[in-house]
Structures are given as structure tokens and as C-alpha cells.
Task: inverse folding
């Protein structure tokens, strides 16, 4: 386990590149939002702050996850990545509600906005977000941490499009309230995707069965093996994204070779399912009756 790399760790370079791009644009967006008076730009900048923080947190979590196991932490620090994803989701939800409140206030009391500069900065953001999405897309299918970063950049992409549309409307019509409407749209877009990330991270921390492992099929495949008469206490959980662990009690036929059964069970699990760490207790017939739980 100490030499294994999590899904986030395998895509560390993508995180670094995206972090540099996002941080650079964040500075431009904050300055632009203040100078132009655009709430939509400042709302997007607030979201970009969480992007930068989330990406930085993900990289720190990767470093922690690569620390070797210790007697006190036998699985190492893999869960640090999930804690990063959870913190990212919580912060995003807070930012979303803040944006919605500010948008409500601005809709009824619109302020003057320099729509030309607002448009220029939003187009720059669109280019940065397109680059970030392209860089993170592959890793987002494997890691909750990268998935969180990918969703944030995707949200920023759509936010940039919303800001561009709002800037064009203000430029051609002078309707300033559209800036608040664009901000509200950004906040509403962030919430459901962030809730999904929060739910997935919580499921890992609660050690729920991974979505990519079919427990019923796993049990059936083990029970079909020669020398196996039953399976109980079957548990599968995730240490972090892309790294699943399993433990089970396997009942052997009295005449079967325990070494052969163990070899068949291990090969069945590691070759047919996305499980990296396997713990199997082999038992003779009737042994489960001596145990305290089933």
C-alpha cells in the first residue's frame, strides 16, 4: 500500500498547471471587478478563490497521501484527499449563497458597470477555463479531488460565458440589472454540482460501498470458486478515489487446500474488480457460528 499512488497523485502535474493558470487569472479578475464595478466579475472571482484554494488543497493532500503508513495510521494519509474534496464542497456552497444574496441586493439597487472592460476580462477568463478543463478532464473520471477541481473550472467556464452575455447586453441596452442576474445564475449553477461532490466525499468518509464495485456480483464470483462453500462479513470501501479495499470471511470446503483457495480468491478479486487491497480470512465449515457478528 505504501508504494501505491492514488488517482489524484497520478494527475498531479495537471493540478499544478491548472493552479498556475487559475491563480494568474484570479488576480486579473479581482482587479477588473473592482475597477469596472461588476458584481458578476467579483462573483466569478470569489468562485476563482475557491478554485485556487481547492487546487492548492488538493496538491497538499497528494503530498500527505504519499507519506508512508505508520503504526498509528496503517493506511497512511490517503483520506487527506477526500477531506480536501469535502472542504472544497463546503466552501463552494458558502460562496454560492453569498453570491445569491449579493445578486438580490444588486438587482434592486444596480450600480454602474464598465461593460467594455468587463467583456474583455470575461473573454480572458473563458480562454483560461477552456485550458483548465482540457487539462483536468481525463483525471476527473478517476479522482473526487480532481472531479471537484474539474467542476469548479467548468462552473467558471459557464460563469465566464454568463458574464460575457451580461456585458454585451449592458453594452447594447444599458440594462444594469443583468449583471445581478448573471451573478445569480452563477450561484444557482454551482449549488447542485457542489452537492453531488459533497455527497460523494461523505460516502467515502462513511466507508460506503464504492459505486464502481458490484457487491452482489463480487460475492457470487467468490462463491463460485472451487473449494469455496460460502462468504460472509464481506466489506468493500474506498481509502480515496480510485483506491478500494476489501475484507471478507471465506468458508472453505474441508477437503480443499487453503493455500489454493486463497490464491483463487485473491486472483478473482484483483483481476475482476477495482480493488487494490484485499484481506481474506479463510474458515472451515461451521466456524462462522463461533463469531460475534455475521
Result:
Amino acid at each position: 500500500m505504501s508504494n501505491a499512488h492514488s488517482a489524484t497523485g497520478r494527475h498531479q502535474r495537471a493540478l499544478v498547471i491548472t493552479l498556475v493558470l487559475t491563480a494568474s487569472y484570479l488576480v486579473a479578475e479581482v482587479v477588473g471587478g473592482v475597477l469596472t464595478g461588476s458584481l458578476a466579475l467579483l462573483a466569478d472571482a470569489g468562485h476563482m478563490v475557491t478554485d485556487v484554494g481547492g487546487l492548492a488543497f488538493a496538491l497538499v493532500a497528494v503530498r500527505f497521501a504519499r507519506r508512508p503508513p505508520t503504526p498509528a495510521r496503517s493506511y497512511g494519509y490517503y483520506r487527506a484527499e477526500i477531506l480536501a474534496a469535502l472542504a472544497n464542497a463546503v466552501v463552494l456552497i458558502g460562496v454560492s449563497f453569498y453570491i445569491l444574496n449579493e445578486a438580490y441586493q444588486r438587482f434592486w439597487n444596480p450600480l454602474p458597470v464598465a461593460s467594455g472592460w468587463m467583456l474583455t476580462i470575461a473573454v480572458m477568463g473563458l480562454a483560461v477555463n477552456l485550458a483548465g478543463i482540457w487539462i483536468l478532464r481525463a483525471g476527473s473520471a478517476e479522482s473526487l479531488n480532481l472531479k471537484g477541481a474539474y467542476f469548479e473550472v467548468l462552473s467558471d467556464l459557464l460563469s465566464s460565458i454568463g458574464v460575457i452575455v451580461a456585458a454585451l447586453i449592458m453594452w447594447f441596452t444599458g440594462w444594469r440589472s443583468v449583471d445581478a442576474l448573471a451573478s445569480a445564475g452563477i450561484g444557482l449553477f454551482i449549488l447542485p454540482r457542489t452537492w453531488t461532490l459533497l455527497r460523494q466525499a461523505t460516502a467515502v468518509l462513511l466507508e460506503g460501498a464504492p459505486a464502481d464495485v458490484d457487491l452482489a456480483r463480487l460475492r457470487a464470483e467468490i462463491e463460485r470458486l472451487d473449494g469455496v462453500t460460502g462468504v460472509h462479513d464481506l466489506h468493500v470501501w474506498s481509502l480515496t478515489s480510485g483506491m478500494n479495499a476489501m475484507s471478507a470471511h471465506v468458508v472453505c470446503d474441508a477437503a480443499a487446500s487453503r493455500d489454493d483457495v486463497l490464491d483463487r480468491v485473491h486472483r478473482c478479486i484483483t483481476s475482476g474488480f477495482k480493488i487494490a487491497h484485499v484481506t481474506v480470512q479463510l474458515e472451515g465449515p461451521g466456524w462462522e457460528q463461533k463469531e460475534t457478528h455475521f
